[in-house]
Write a structure and sequence with these properties.
homodimer, 341 residues, alpha/beta, Rossmann fold, 2 domains, seven-stranded mixed sheet, six-stranded mixed sheet, 43% helix
Chain lengths: 341, 341
Amino acid sequence: MRLIIAGFGAVGQSLVSLLKNRMNWLREKYGLPIKVVAVIDRGGAAIEKEGLNPEKLIKTKKIKGTVASYPEKGVKEVLCQEVIEETEAEVVVEVTSANDLSTGEPGFSNITTALKTGKNVVTTNKVPLVLALPALMDLAEHNSVLLRFSGTVGGGTPILNFGKECLQGEKIISIKGVLNGTTNFILTEMEKGESFHNALLKAKKLGYCEENPSLDIDGLDTAFKLVILANWVMDKEVTLKNVKIKGIRGIEKEELTENLKKGYTIKLIGSIEEKIEVKPSKISLNNPLNVKGVLNAVMFKSEISGNKTIIGPGSGGLATANSVIRDLISIKRELMMRMVR
Amino acid sequence: MRLIIAGFGAVGQSLVSLLKNRMNWLREKYGLPIKVVAVIDRGGAAIEKEGLNPEKLIKTKKIKGTVASYPEKGVKEVLCQEVIEETEAEVVVEVTSANDLSTGEPGFSNITTALKTGKNVVTTNKVPLVLALPALMDLAEHNSVLLRFSGTVGGGTPILNFGKECLQGEKIISIKGVLNGTTNFILTEMEKGESFHNALLKAKKLGYCEENPSLDIDGLDTAFKLVILANWVMDKEVTLKNVKIKGIRGIEKEELTENLKKGYTIKLIGSIEEKIEVKPSKISLNNPLNVKGVLNAVMFKSEISGNKTIIGPGSGGLATANSVIRDLISIKRELMMRMVR
């Protein structure tokens, strides 16, 4: 399986590190021989159809700042989409960062270029998906290729896989969850008596959120994940504009500490029922969604077997990179299935 | 897909009811047309290669007490294993109850007969599995058929599927869990101040345990589930004799109420690490394994992405029957995969 990696930040580099150690294991256990034939970053690309060397890729990036300086195979001044279009490969791993919130670029064009040129796509980028997931899934189907993104919800915790694969054979009625680690960390601290302001500072200090924390605390990141869950697990064709969003700004610590005495807590809950909605919600302390710190928790309600909750860490570069490997295994399986359909 | 159903108690009947309502849905969504060609109970069997009528099966059982009275197609005085051997079918659904703890019969012979005659097996019976799972898996492989049992751990909650399918691509280091709803209900009541004796009576009254509750409270049922998890998810070739077992007898309510004040609780935890062990264990109230009542919770620790916990109801006839359908879908997929390998 030949990969083009678009974007070489934390996730891309973690992926290449993981692959370096796991090449043999993946080939032996999953029949999945992997070759990285191109890596693209802001400075250019490294391209080699026989496969690039993982160690050299990481070393070049570290020392020179761009894979364009990869010995002999580095190319400067090249367009990402040209490389995707012209390099022969089975899968494009789209892991660029800082995608524009209104256009989803550069991820959006990378993904569409890959799909249109008959390449399967694995991405960990939420933004292009939430703007146009139904259209992207159609585009993939039209081109008989696959689009996978299990790292976009729950990072290392396979929430999308659980909903899609483990709950086969019955209908899922609703999904509710704590889907943003940063806001959950802040609410957990406030429950202990910290003010919103101080809890936010602490989250920043610990690296749990960006300098501009709006995506997290205003509920947008949770909404992103709901859109992806709704499309993938519940076959709802929705985008970000279908979600009603309210974040955690304005919640006072007293609200949390008072509720706590009565056996309740407040969580930023994203829910998919009749409507799709993000809002701070009061839940019982015994509710499995009452998780602490940066954990994520998602409850699936299904027709016959009731509520099932999955809890785990929501992010981390290495865990997200690992989700790419999970998706590559899934793509291989699905491609094999298609051969007999 | 032609099914032979061996055993027609709560799970068998729930399965036939489910199938009655879902025949079309399963065919359309999963390409899985299902036909029940034989049902066997203690009184005999009903056999019809064109497919038995679900409604008639349930009605006959209800009114006459045995499927042997099924109009025209009922047979008295027939051996279960003969029916399994001689009826053409793709899958034997083994759901007999009250299997002997030392021999695993009648489930054990039903399963081996099915595997030996080239039939895939789905079972919800723990006992035959925990006595000989490594041998049964070998037997299935030798005969190029599949053995599935996702309802044996967690009932409606797909714990085995999660561990096997959703955590692909990384190594699982340990599994810990609250795997028995009855003991967890008792401990939850004791935490509220009930004595062990009263909590047990309440569990019996609510139908959460048998008249003889030893399997639950002495830890055996938890041990059963560990054996199955260890074989299926962690590729350990173990049976019941490899598990060290201590149940919840002898725990005093004071132990629970005192710990509670300090932020701890006691759960009957089954764990698979270096050793496989069942014992009452002190855990923090914030631990995701701290679930209440009859819920089950299992925590998987994996190499890269940390701890992931799945929480859900542990049993129920309909939920367990639904797990059989999940396994049938899984068998269909796996058989298709084999065609291209």
